[in-house]
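Notes, Module 5: Reading structure tokens.

Key idea: the token line is not a picture. It is a compressed description, and you learn to read it the same way you learned to read a sequence, by spotting repeated patterns. We will look at two proteins. The first is printed below with its tokens.
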Amino acid sequence: MAKETNFTYLIDLVNPYLPDAENTSVEETVRLIIKQSSNNRFAPMPSSSTLNAYASGGISRTAAKKILKLTNKETSSLEEYFSKIGADQLTAIANKLKKRGVSKNVYRGKVPALLAKLFYDTFDRAANRKNKRKQKIPTKSEDKDIFTKTVSDETFSTVFRQVNASEIDAVRNRNAIHAFVLKPELLPFSYTNLKNLVTSNITSYAIARGVSKTDVIGLQAANLLRKYAKSGIPNNLLGELLAYIFLEHEDNALKLYTRAEILKANRTIDSEGIYLKRDQGKTQLILGASQLNNNLENAINNVVKKIATFDNNRSNETVLATDIVDSSILQTQFGEDKSNAIIKLMAPTETDFEDIASYGIFIGYKFTTKLDLDDCTLEEAKEKCRQAINCDLEQAISRLNIVIQQHHWQKSSFYVYLLPFTNAEQDSHAIMKDLIGE
């Protein structure tokens, strides 16, 4: 019997591949799917926050009913739209569907029709489900404050291009590994736009969610990060910042607090940051970790060593999320009512919260390739650069498969981001020195 899919899984499946996507955000992917499945008749389009909520928790009953009312499986342009995806990408999607057990006989030519059917099946299920859905706290007003991204979307797509996305075979829970490259995809890489993106998000990373980004607050954030860098705690401050940016932007995993953020209160945590991600109707606690190393394999090994030292991985029994998160820090950051709502959200239940902590990992490494990037056209150089990064992705998956099995972490979720630098170690220190001083 074929395995059933849901809207969140399908959005992640097609996310890197839609032909007219302006960026790789799930928000953009949901928008395009709604547009195409309704023959461009769905109006008004839901807000950005609503689209992100659909991506993480499934499409709403109301939206699904509206799509079905505006079109149907026979008149939809969705299959034709999916047929415009590149041949290699269709093959990759087919392989993922086979691996998940959705269809044993799917191949490239069958993918567009199967995708269209799968999406409409999710619309049918959503439209016909009972209206009384089990809702967990927080309340709507609290939800708006707690589950709102602090990372700005505007500049993200001007900085990065996603080269490929895949899964880690050893992981039995939800997971993804993404390979990105800085735009333009040429050596030596330009860091101008990266610096602008980091600068625009330093305050939200270093101080607190929802703080007004005034010039004064920006200076306070820079001062705090200078003290944090001098404390000897971080060895790759840019890596910690980028882990935060990718987790919030790409996976809608939202920051509760970072290690740098609570330094002023003379507190430390073993992970670099603690995040909450809503995923297929559940909520996950994600622990952040990063590594910048010129050697990709060393970077992976070092970040694994870091994760192995986390309190939840040193215990002989499962460590509850409520024991990992410091409630007194939450009260300082969010206030008593909201912090209590967050803690209650993480209380172990049978269906709503993942029992085991997950991991959000950023890995920066030095780009190296034996391909000739000089004696070719501009587009050929970019394509060769992407080919080399695809090889790096395969190397990372192979290594992560081994170490995850060695540490028995198959039940946790992993969200991994790879980014090559011209020189990961030197360039990252230079970038942070330029942004916050010494």
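Here is the second protein, with the sequence above and the tokens below, as before.
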Amino acid sequence: MKKIIISLFAVATLSVMLSPLMQTTNATTFKDVSSSHWAKAAIDEAVSKGYFKGYADGTFKPGAQVTRAEFAVLLDRVSSNEKVEGKGTFTDLTGNWSEKEVNEAIAKGFLTPSDYPNGFKPATPLTRKEMAKWMSSGLATSSADYRQALSDTANTVVPVAEYFKKTMNPSEYPYVSLMMGTGLMSGYADGTFGAGKTTTRAEAAVILVRLANVQKQSADSFVGLKELRAVGTTGTNMEVITPFSSGVTSFKNVQGKKMKFRNGAGYSNLNYLIFVDSRDWNNKKGIYSPVFLGKEDKLKKEGTFYRVYANQSLYPTLNGFSIEHYKNSSLSRLAVGSSIASKLPEKYGYQTLPIFEPQTIFKKYINDKDGMNLWMQNTISTDYPNNTYITDDGSRFLIK
């Protein structure tokens, strides 16, 4: 009898020690995942492919948080990367259930031990920032093109609120861009990426199924990522999603260069030109569409029009500077736009041309060396595409 009691205690103890990823059931019908659950298809696929396993009691616990150790193990299971030995390990993993697989995830290029100088702390809930960096690092390890994509997006415009509100560290731009550009991860309804938020088992299942597919494709096969790379390297996504061309007059030629107002009221420069394909309102294209194009912006006739969103640094120098001074600056049409009159500037945290009491707002920036950082909108039709932008030093950018 005593032996039976000891044996039962040992089994119970082992059950507690095992990670949810180590449970024995691989059923694809779980008591807590209904047929209408938003992630059911991904959960079923992840389980059928052996990435996840459910609990012995027939549950999956889709809302449970995923830890660092668990996600590292999951990455090891889904990854096709070759292992590179001698990449280091963590001192606090000895004897942990995940030790072998975490070390393999390190060898496959997902984790860098130096990122965790105080230990891996395997039971710590994984943040979305970590998830983005781990998967980006793994893809970059397996492919020179993904590695180049990380480099190309170091100075891009990241389509999330944290970028515009300047609460995102620039070191995160490439990782978040790679995730959003490939569709591996997306932002929340409030426009944020939520780098500090944790991830559930259901979310991880969806992401792992996506990763299994993404790692089979080239970085260049994702249009969204191509847009982000183009913006990071040339300042515009124009030639990725529109039929327009600049020939040899790249936007890079004029990016950030000074352009004086002909009326003497100030000067400006263009930093980025972002294009959105809105010709079919029910099928808008462009990774930046949710950031700039609101439902209030629908034109009576969309068929030939692309939207252009210009990031501009504006430097008013004349006391009493007004919208009229801006509109009548005699600059290129590309450099004189209109306000983005939807709720998106507030949602994402960027400034557009002021509508209410503009002179009061402009007054704050008279002779300010940093100027105003504005986003304004324009349209370009395929019927009349030609636009030329010339800076004070004679540099040109042509749309044709």
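Summary for the second protein:
- The beta strands are 259-260, 266-277, 305-316, 372-381, 387-390, 396-399.
- The radius of gyration is 26 Å.
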